[in-house]
């Protein structure tokens, strides 16, 4: 009973938050709604008994990823509105909504017929964090290490990309010429 | 109000995925496009966790971890690319991103 109430409450909240993220014009509102939706998603993980995953969701998403996005939002000056010029607005909105509804129907129609009973917990007598550790560091050790290397590569790539002086030229022209180019750009 | 089964979670995950899909299709601001991508990844995570719960197998949770790791690296690389793009063109409008057009 309580599980059902919690499920429907959090499902409603999550869908509402993500809907705001997708439809709002303000980047700040989108960011805040996305962070709230992520936290509500972690509620599902706690309901499902995946405690460790829920904690990781809160730490990684609302801690790390949202901080990165907040930095990006400040960097990109999103107060200036991006023109979302699209032919006929109603046709585009209608078609994309129709496509989304079709996806829901296609995937949901075969599922509503029968229920599946929970078999949790997988290993008796130990908590979720311990179970996850057992499986992660025995069966999935190599994928785990590969994921770690991938994160390292991504971090280095992000720093290299963001740190490079790529706006006009790398090394060949001097500062005066860069200024000149900039002025030309402004004038044109 | 009946018992919550796997179907409920899968339907919820599908709805969230569809919302993210609408965002990916409609958005012209690249930062907001990234937000929509995060919604897609989170929808998949919900499905993974639910399947892991209802089949009593931890593989789903493992895959959810890997999805989170991929999302984190996507943010790092994607924001790096976005910064480069913004430095060059002073805009993050998707319509301006046409250098790959022949």
Automatic annotation (TrEMBL), chain A:
Keywords: Cell membrane, Membrane, NAD, Oxidoreductase, Quinone, Transmembrane, Transmembrane helix. Belongs to the complex I subunit 6 family. It comes from Sulfurimonas autotrophica (strain ATCC BAA-671 / DSM 16294 / JCM 11897 / OK10). It comes from the Bacteria. This is NADH-quinone oxidoreductase subunit J. GO terms for cellular component: plasma membrane. NDH-1 shuttles electrons from NADH, via FMN and iron-sulfur (Fe-S) centers, to quinones in the respiratory chain. Couples the redox reaction to proton translocation (for every two electrons transferred, four hydrogen ions are translocated across the cytoplasmic membrane), and thus conserves the redox energy in a proton gradient. The keyword NAD applies.
From TrEMBL, chain B:
It is an enzyme of class 7 (translocase). Pfam families: Oxidored_q2. InterPro entries: NADH_UbQ_OxRdtase_chain4L/K, NUOK/Mnh_C1-like. It is found in: Cell inner membrane; Membrane. It catalyses: a quinone + NADH + 5 H(+)(in) = a quinol + NAD(+) + 4 H(+)(out). Its main location: membrane. Coiled coil: none annotated. The chain crosses the membrane at residues 6-24, 31-56, 62-86. Keywords: Cell inner membrane, Cell membrane, Membrane, NAD, Oxidoreductase, Quinone, Translocase, Transmembrane, Transmembrane helix, Transport, Ubiquinone. One of its GO terms (cellular component) is plasma membrane. It is a multi-pass membrane protein. GO terms for molecular function: NADH dehydrogenase (quinone) (non-electrogenic) activity; quinone binding. GO terms for biological process: ATP synthesis coupled electron transport. Its EC number is 7.1.1.-. NDH-1 is composed of 14 different subunits. Subunits NuoA, H, J, K, L, M, N constitute the membrane sector of the complex. Belongs to the complex I subunit 4L family. NDH-1 shuttles electrons from NADH, via FMN and iron-sulfur (Fe-S) centers, to quinones in the respiratory chain. The immediate electron acceptor for the enzyme in this species is believed to be ubiquinone. Couples the redox reaction to proton translocation (for every two electrons transferred, four hydrogen ions are translocated across the cytoplasmic membrane), and thus conserves the redox energy in a proton gradient. This is NADH-quinone oxidoreductase subunit K. The lineage of its organism: Bacteria, Pseudomonadati, Campylobacterota, Epsilonproteobacteria, Campylobacterales.
